[in-house]
Specification:
2 domains, binds norvaline, binds phosphoric acid mono(formamide)ester
Amino acid sequence: MKRNLLTLFDLEKSTFHNILKLALEYKKKKSNDNFLKGKNIGLIFEKNSTRTRVSCEVAINQLGGNSIYLSSKDLQLNRGESIEDTARVLSRYLDAVIIRAKSHVTIEKFAASSDIPVINALSDKAHPLQILADFLTIQENGIDLNNCNLCFLGDGQNNVCRSLMAGYTYINGTMNIGTHINYFPDEEFLKQVKTAGGKINVFPEAVESVIGADVLYTDVWVSMGNEDETIQRKKDLKGFQINKEILSKTGKTPIVLHCLPAQKGEEITNEVFESLNSKIFDQAENRLYSMKAVLKYVFNG
Ligand code: CP
Ligand code: NVA
């Protein structure tokens, strides 16, 4: 059976929670099984990456497999070979592909033409691997996922926010989104998430959105691919920064998360980034353990 992870919606609720459980086991035991022995996994990246690329490659290697990094610039894709043909060819050599693409449609097309599992390493629409590490980080800070009030401040339409919203369909907590009206989540997607049971509230200003938050989460205002809109985005989202003042409005002692890379002084102040509330580097570390758990799911179910 071919198991893909293009968005979190590819997972059953029980699988989602099993992946989190397994990720924590990988973190605790610090030892690895060898279930990827003899397996070759390709990484196709159309965009830059530090955490995703390295955590994927290290996870694969520590689990006994071999990773092959394929910059899309070096593939014949860059000279016009179709994504479908690329998928059909690579399916004959590799055991799985991890792909970071500019457009989510590229990943969907690749998966549709591929005989091997496909894992989304970030697209414009989703970043499922990130959210698994985020939820692991929330849990290990003693916050019950079924009672977790998370507030995302920033671009309510971006990949990370969308995948957090998808994640909230698997837990009973509430997610608030504080964002400028121009960056409200896509209506149809919001409806899909709510229909699937996600408790999501959207606020056009920051203060109200953070009240009661156990977790404050942010991401860059200008995602990869949005660079043309930099000036407008910085202007629009200025009021949605995570800073000491906004932290105090939660009425709690929230943990602060950021998927990284960060633009300090924009979406988050250096003071909060370096504060005790910040669990940002544990979050980055957790990418490794959640990746191992995802690989186990993809190969062993
Ligand atoms: N958070 C994240 O995906 O980081 P990279 O872009 O460095 O992979
Ligand atoms: N929203 C960011 C996430 C980076 C990990 C981007 O797409 O650039």
